[in-house]
Design goal:
Length: 737
């Protein structure tokens, strides 16, 4: 069926000659391609969505109103064609065609070959020419060379098809079939003869012959009948002309490929050979093994396909391997799933045991049909093992559940011992599986049966943490010190020489504490206050010689030299004072240092005997009294008038004291009765209202009784209310002016 193409307005214009008196022949040189579905319109001047334009286009006029167009594209482009356009040599869009469905699809690997019969509704096709491209595939007619379809034997024998042609073979079979259809002796077709001979000239069907090779050195063709006990010898032949072939296809058959070797040929080429040793080769493969196949760079490298084409209840697609009576193994696609599996003991009568498989995800599982990782080994009771063997030396294993449930370990199978274990909580044990968690996740080294060490080796030295007997050791070695830190800051430094620095990384002495302002160290005893002593002891090789500490019994601070020597004090790197062996406080050098100074005097002193100044008594009964020159008539330089004096007083049970500055103190007891008010009038009045004080106001009754409360207060007295159910007296005092 021809495609009806739309000629554009511009195309029609190109067919008209310059004088508008006739037509011009036009030459089509290019074909445009689009993947866009569209409806052709004569007004269009461009192909909608054009994706490329090719010049390899040819054509021929096959009728007054039709042309046959052929175009090819051998590039690696990939696209779908839903429409195309024909362009003239000057680029004019001559005609175009489009549809919704795909005309063809081109892939990267394929070439595009378009052959189309195009009909014109009102254009003289003879006015259309094509460029110099030298290929064209029009339909063949009795006048035009082109493509034809070959007829089958049935179509040839039918004799009614006028568009297909006969091959010699089909022609022969068609004529023979037609002749055979004209059945019957005496029909004039000599059907009662075979090659002009009657049946009496031939052996009957049950007749036997010897070897026919001596009668005919060429190949023997057996076309019908029944032969018994016949030995047929044929020429060796070749792959191109097999010695034993089919009459209908003489380059397909068997030939002698060599001494004691059988070859199979198709299309005149050797496809298979069975050698004298029984080895089978395909496509010229080298006969290295019993079965050998070869192909020249097959697509994706695939040489063979083992397929199970059942529609349901798939049992897999596998190859089986068996050594004599040893158990057979199978490999291939697992039953009913997209996976490649390995089986032991699988055969036509038994499913066998799946050993391992590759899942569609690429994960590989051993002992599991659903591997969840690139490699997953599954098992129970220590069976989930990956073994790493150093032949003749040691066998290592990576195990899951190797020693206990929920334990992952790396084991030395040669020694029968776990070297590293991780439990389900995330704790890690080295040399043990019995991990005791401490403060959350734990790394435990050792099982307590021997000392354990963590060693760290760096470019400048090494260090370790380990156990030795009952001790935990954290140490540097090989000239390396030790540092402890917090929040990425070094807090404690221990030098290789044993110096300890707190707040400094370069301690100059055994203990060096460095800090900013404020208290930089605290030494705290766990004793309760008032009990026990806490101190620093100073010792030499023979024992303690001095101590400094806290005497808890009396809240004392103790500084003690426990041997026969002084206790010295000094400044500017010089001892100034000392407490001697007998307990005297004395300067280190006589007549050198003072107690106090003009700017910082000593306020007073207390002495049990006379004080001597330059050998003289500084104070004694002989120079006591007013006018002695010692200012004894003064008190800290003040006269008696400078001190508070009593103006009036009454020291009775309900009494008072009135001072010269107006201050008054009144005291007494007031009687109270249950559920009643009591009144007190001061013996002297205050200038302003004071507040009485009742030291035992909350103790006059029991806890379950109501107590006494202050009701009112004035400058001359107060009243109280006893809300409880008892009576008694209540002490009070009042201070004010």
């Amino acid at each position: 069926m021809a495609i009806t193409i739309i000629v554009t307005n511009a195309g029609r214009d190109a067919l008209v000659n310059a004088a508008n008196t006739g037509t011009n022949a036009v030459t089509i040189t290019q074909l445009g391609i689009t993947a866009t579905a569209f409806a052709a319109d004569p007004a269009q001047v461009a192909l909608p969505g054009e994706i490329k334009r090719i010049a390899s286009v040819a054509g021929v006029v096959v009728a007054d109103d039709a042309i046959h167009v052929t175009a090819s594209d051998v590039t690696a482009d990939a696209y779908t064609m839903r429409g195309f356009a024909l362009y003239l040599a000057d680029g004019t869009l001559f005609a175009l065609y489009g549809q919704a469905g795909a005309i063809l699809n081109k892939t990267v690997e394929s070439m595009m070959l378009l052959a189309a019969d195009i009909a014109f509704a009102d254009i003289d096709a003879t006015m259309i020419e094509f460029g110099d491209t030298n290929f064209v595939l029009p339909p063949a007619t009795t006048e035009i060379l082109g493509l034809v379809e070959l007829a089958t034997t049935d179509e040839g024998q039918g004799g009614s098809d006028n568009s297909r042609v006969l091959t010699p073979y089909v022609g022969k079979q068609s004529v023979l079939g037609w002749l055979l259809s004209q059945d019957g002796a005496g029909s004039g077709l000599d059907a009662d003869l075979l090659d002009g001979l009657h049946a009496s000239a031939f052996a009957l069907a049950g007749h036997t012959h010897g070897t026919m090779a001596t009668q005919n050195a060429n190949a023997v063709a057996i076309t019908g009948g029944t032969l018994g006990n016949v030995s047929v010898g044929v020429v060796d032949g070749t792959a191109g002309a097999p010695g034993l072939f089919w009459n209908a296809d003489t380059d397909v058959g068997l030939f002698r490929a060599g001494a004691n070797a059988l070859g199979v040929a198709t299309a005149g080429a050797e496809r298979m050979r069975i050698g004298p040793d029984g080895k089978v080769t395909l496509n010229g493969a080298t006969p290295n093994y019993l079965f050998n196949a070869a192909s020249s760079n097959p697509a994706r490298g695939i040489l063979a396909d083992v397929a199970n084409i059942a529609a349901a209840d798939l049992n897999g697609a596998m190859l089986s391997f068996t050594q004599n009576t040893i158990n057979n193994w199978c490999i291939g696609q697992a039953p009913g799933v997209d996976a490649f599996a390995f089986y032991r003991g699988r055969n036509g009568a038994a499913d066998g045991t799946e050993i391992a498989r590759f899942a569609a995800s690429g994960n590989f599982g051993i002992g599991t049909t659903t591997p969840g990782a690139r490699l997953q080994v599954a098992g129970t009771g220590g069976s989930s093992v990956i073994s790493l063997l150093e032949t003749g030396v040691r066998n290592w294993a990576i195990r899951s559940g190797g020693t206990a449930t929920n334990i992952f370990d790396i084991a030395d199978l040669t020694a029968g011992a776990t070297r590293l274990a991780i439990n389900s909580a995330g704790d890690i044990g080295i040399g043990t599986t019995a991990i005791t968690a401490v403060f959350g996740r734990t790394l435990q080294i050792g099982d307590g049966s021997q000392n354990a060490t963590v060693s760290v080796v760096g470019a400048s030295g090494a260090g370790y943490m380990g156990t030795a007997g009952a001790n935990l050791i954290l140490s540097g070695r090989g000239g390396m010190g030790l540092q402890l830190g917090a929040n990425d800051t070094t807090a404690v430094t221990i030098t290789p020489g044993g110096g300890v620095g707190i707040g400094t990384t370069a301690p100059g002495v055994r203990l060096h504490v460095k800090s900013g302002s404020g208290q930089f160290a605290t030494f705290e005893s766990t004793n309760a206050r008032g009990t026990g002593n806490s101190y620093f002891g100073l010792s030499d090789a023979t024992g303690r010689k001095a101590f400094f500490g806290y005497g808890g019994g009396n809240d004392d601070l103790h500084i003690m030299n426990e041997v026969a020597g002084n206790l010295g004090f000094g400044t500017n790197a010089t001892f100034r004072w000392a407490i001697g062996q007998s307990g005297n406080f004395e300067p280190v050098a006589g007549d050198t240092y003072d107690i106090g100074s003009p700017a910082a005097r000593v306020r007073s002193g207390h002495f049990s005997t006379a004080v001597s100044i330059a050998g003289n008594a500084a104070w004694h009964a002989g120079n006591d009294g007013s006018g002695s020159g010692l200012d004894a008539d003064l008190l800290d330089g003040l006269q008696a008038s400078d001190f508070l004096q009593i103006a009036a007083a009454s020291v009775l049970q309900n009494g008072y004291i009135a001072f010269s500055n107006g201050l008054k103190i009144i005291w007494g007891r007031v009687s109270v009765s249950m559920d009643s008010y009591s009144y007190v009038t001061y013996p002297i009045s205050f200038d302003s209202v004071p507040t009485p004080v009742f030291p035992t106001i909350d103790q006059i009754g029991t806890a379950s009784q109501q107590n006494t409360l202050l009701a009112s207060s004035t400058i001359s007295g107060f009243s109280i209310y006893q809300a409880g159910d008892i009576s008694g007296t209540l002490p009070y005092h009042v201070i004010g002016k």
